[in-house]
Amino acid sequence: MGGKLADVGFLGFDVFGTVVDWRAGVARAAAPFLEHHGLRLDPFDFANAWRALYQPAMEKVRSGQRPWVRLDVLQRENLEQLLAAHGVAAGDIPEAELADLTRAWERLDPWPDAVEGLARLKRRFAIAPISNGHIAGMLQLARFGGLPWDAILGAEVSRTYKPQPATYLQPLDAAGFAPAQAAMVAAHNADLRAARALGMRTVFVRRPHEYGPDQDTDLRAEEDWDVVAESLTEVADILGCL
């Protein structure tokens, strides 16, 4: 049972895009905010634009340009930057509204297959996020969506962001697993590439609508990942988790 993952005891999961649908959740939260403040922006375009600031903000931490800060800090700064680009000063918006909209990233619906798939995989493997999300945010996201993690690991454990090696290795060490005993599960080829370079096994889950109908990245497995599937329930099928 388990084929190439027969010796694996731990599955680490990318969360944003792989387990939860960030675009729809952020757009849902943004729609009333944009309408209330007279911003004629499509909520889904707003969500994509907010997400586009994600990697540049983390790169400043990865490169040492700024000290470690949690993802919620970066997301709030990115929100203020996005609003400024549309002529809205953050100081003109009530603090409670900005804080609530930032927490939209903690109220994201799982993909339809995610909860069932995780529950089935948990019967055989220890499961936890290896995400750029901070622990408090991942906790709220799990409670909101019913994600049955065994632990919450990731960037806040290592105090850096993927694809830095420590973001994978330190959570594994904290959970008591060597890289060869673990697999990374992600919808992003670059995430799996970084994990494989450290000796982890790899599971690609295709999410062709993560960025919407015009998505042009991560539409296929770009390498011979150990498992390639269309859903987390299919991953469970492949690995014999009934």
Automatic annotation (TrEMBL):
Catalysis performed (reactions): an (S)-2-haloacid + H2O = a (2R)-2-hydroxycarboxylate + a halide anion + H(+)
Keywords: Hydrolase
Keyword Transferase: no
Record flagged with keyword Hydrolase: yes
Top-level taxon of origin: Bacteria
Assigned EC number: 3.8.1.2
EC top class named in words: hydrolase
Function: Catalyzes the hydrolytic dehalogenation of small (S)-2-haloalkanoic acids to yield the corresponding (R)-2-hydroxyalkanoic acids.
Matching PANTHER family: HALOACID DEHALOGENASE, TYPE II (AFU_ORTHOLOGUE AFUA_2G07750)-RELATED (PTHR43316:SF3), HYDROLASE, HALOACID DELAHOGENASE-RELATED (PTHR43316)
Family recorded in the similarity comment: Belongs to the HAD-like hydrolase superfamily. S-2-haloalkanoic acid dehalogenase family.
NCBIfam families: HAD-SF-IA-v2 (TIGR01493), HAD_type_II (TIGR01428)
Protein name in UniProt: (S)-2-haloacid dehalogenase
Lineage of source species: Bacteria, Pseudomonadati, Pseudomonadota, Betaproteobacteria, Burkholderiales
